[in-house]
Design brief:
5-stranded antiparallel β-sheet, mainly beta, SH3 type barrels, 7 strands, 10% helix, single chain
Length: 106
């Protein structure tokens, strides 16, 4: 998330707004790394929280299907916690439906 209206800091803890546009994204990084998680951006620095590496899409229609429907029966996700990267490492991003990913990304 980017912008002062999306986060608030209280006693040193940053809280992220959860309504409005989806903060859950599939991010494709250089060298073919594909992750899904809760996206934040502070200047050029990006973070995916509660992130998973998407090892196997398990779809018949690509990453768009995964973003729209959430993990499918043949999808393989590897938990990796917090992933940090520079914005120049991003090849593409796909917004995901919060309702189909919320339970996975807790």
């Amino acid at each position: 998330m980017n912008g002062s209206n999306d986060t608030i800091e209280v006693n040193g803890v940053k809280y992220i707004r959860q309504d409005g546009d989806s903060d859950i994204r599939i991010v494709i990084l250089h060298r073919g790394f594909v992750y899904v998680g809760r996206f934040e951006q502070d200047g050029p620095n990006c973070i995916l929280r509660n992130a998973f590496n998407i090892r196997r899409w398990g779809t018949s229609s690509g990453l768009g299907e995964l973003a729209e429907k959430g993990p499918l029966a043949n999808t393989k996700l590897d938990k990796c916690g917090v992933v940090r990267f520079h914005e120049l490492g991003i090849v593409a991003q796909i917004d995901c439906g919060n309702e189909v990913w919320n339970d996975v990304l807790r």
